[in-house]
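May I ask you to comment on the folded chain given beneath this request?
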Amino acid sequence: MRNALLIGEIAMSTTLLVVAALLARSVYELHQEPLGFSPHGLVTFRTPLDTTPAASRAIVTREWRERLETLPGVLGVATTSVLPLTGQRNLPAQRFAHPDQSIGGTEIRVVSPDYFALLGIPVREGRLFDDRDDGGASPVAVINETLARAWWPDGNALHDRIRIGAYQDRAFVDDAPRDVVGIVGDTKTVTLQASARPTVFVAAAQAETGALSSATPNWIVRTTRPDAFAAQI
């Protein structure tokens, strides 16, 4: 009986050691997984504006941005409708006039112009959003490499058009076709394990009203003082 118990204990210990080693390897591999952006020195938070009139949200957001930029140690401020690795916000999307090139769940991100630079997301082709892309300008979009490869394998995505909210020529959301002005590097979207999802980025100034507008801005601040920044906020 003692021998049997001893053998059982050794077998269980060996099994636990193997499981622990596999777990440690999985954690290590997750830490080595490229994010596509730099998380160092970033602080994120959200400010619900559900009770703020839609016409005032842009003004409030601009005021908050100006105040945040004056805080000690702040290197940059950006906003996004969905923070990386926190969830999904998808809509159908279609390459304009190409119903065969439609995706029912394209990730849509409404971002401020400095979003890409602040996170260190590289520009592969074209340009990023700037002050030209306001509410009175022609609608534009930036896409990630995954979507560019899916719909433009020949590499001619720039200045073609995308329609958010359309699927196989059926419109589910009233959004005008958008010119593709830039392609950026892929980033992790939902989980570390999953590959980047096809993503369309929209300039915040062109989504202050309508189906793409958000009543909950998500803030990203790069600061030299991340530990003290929460109290300053």
Q: What stands out?
A: The longest strand covers residues 102-111.
